[in-house]
């Protein structure tokens, strides 16, 4: 098994529906609730930092507790995602 797969085996989301982490939009109550639910799972994940790092190059979805807009803001600011 490769290292990329190993961290996913420890992820808090491993048994969740992957669609939860792919909201259709960031507007409207249902989508905001979906984002909040996904982020709540990420909040207590033991591999959140690794997930966030991997997600910095992903075009969509919630990775390490950040939406694509939040990841873009991190990249634009030059900060390291913590």
Runs in which pLDDT lies below 50 for 5 or more consecutive residues are none
User: What's the count of strands?
Assistant: 0
Question: How much beta, percentage-wise?
Answer: under 5%
Structural class: mainly alpha
Work out the helicity level.
Answer: 40-55%
Number of helical regions = 4
How far the N terminus sits from the C terminus, by CA atoms, comes to: 27 Å
Major beta sheet summary? none
> Radius of gyration in whole Å, from Cα?
12 Å
Question: What would you note in describing this structure?
Answer:
- By secondary structure, the protein is an all-alpha fold.
- It has a domain at about 1-10 and about 45-80.
- Helix content is about 50%, strand content about 0%.
- The protein is built from 4 helices and no strands.
- The protein has helices spanning about 5-10, 30-45, 50-55, 70-75.
- It is globular and about 35 Å long.
Summarize the structure.
The protein has a domain at 1-8 and 45-82. Helices cover 49% and strands 0% of the residues.
How are the SSEs ordered, and which strands pair?
Blueprint lengths: L2 H7 L19 H15 L4 H8 L12 H10 L5
């Amino acid at each position: 098994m490769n290292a990329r797969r190993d961290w996913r085996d420890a992820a808090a989301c491993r048994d969740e529906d992957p669609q939860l982490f792919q909201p259709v939009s960031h507007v409207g109550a249902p989508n905001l609730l979906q984002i909040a639910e996904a982020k709540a799972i990420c909040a207590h994940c033991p591999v959140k930092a690794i997930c966030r790092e991997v997600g910095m190059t992903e075009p969509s979805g919630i990775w390490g507790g950040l939406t694509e807009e939040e990841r873009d803001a991190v990249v634009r600011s030059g900060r390291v995602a913590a």
